């Protein structure tokens, strides 16, 4: 799903907390998915690239827990990662893709901070599905070459 003009008009007050203007200015037009989450993982704001990444309108994302978008196998890992955030934390997970039944491998960078005095997380997400698929293909080809060399 490509974000519609209505979805792209995400402003600072799309969630329960007002997102600082600098976040919207710095990340609103970014080419990577960006979001502001509560300390507990609830999505408070998303940029158009995040909307495009997961194929859902902002209204479908705001106030949802980020783990709702993840594969069940990755939910517990992400929950642990969010509870141990340091100055910056990078994690990866499979998230629901833009088409029904599709899954993307996403690398996420999370930076804890504060909004209106409350703990919050600025997160960025990048689709690394093709990179992971290439790595797996390379590993399979390498194993095939080793198998051939072993036979010779």
Structure explained in plain terms:
The chain is of the alpha+beta class and 152 residues long. It is built from six helices and five strands, in the order H-H-E-E-H-H-H-E-E-E-H. The chain has a five-stranded antiparallel β-sheet, with helices on both faces. A hairpin with a 2-residue loop joins strand 4 and strand 5. The termini are far apart. The model is unreliable at 3-16 (pLDDT under 50).
Summarize the model shown.
The protein is an alpha+beta fold and 152 residues long. The chain is 38% helix and 27% strand.
Notable features of this structure?
152 residues; alpha+beta
Describe the SSE topology:
Elements: H1 5-8, H2 21-27, E1 33-38, E2 43-46, H3 48-54, H4 58-61, H5 72-83, E3 89-96, E4 103-115, E5 118-127, H6 129-151
Antiparallel strand pairs: 1-2, 1-5, 3-4, 4-5
What do the pLDDT scores average to? 75
Share in helix: 25-40%
Strand content: 25-35%
Unreliable stretches, pLDDT < 50, 5 or more residues? 3-16
Shape annotation: elongated
Determine the structural class based on helices, strands and strand pairing: alpha+beta
Describe the sheet with the most strands: 5 strands, antiparallel
Radius of gyration from the alpha-carbon trace, in angstroms = 18 Å
- Report the strand count: 5
Sequence of strands across the biggest β-sheet: 2-1-5-4-3
The number of helices is 6
* SSE pattern: HHEEHHHEEEH
The separation of the N and C termini measures 51 Å
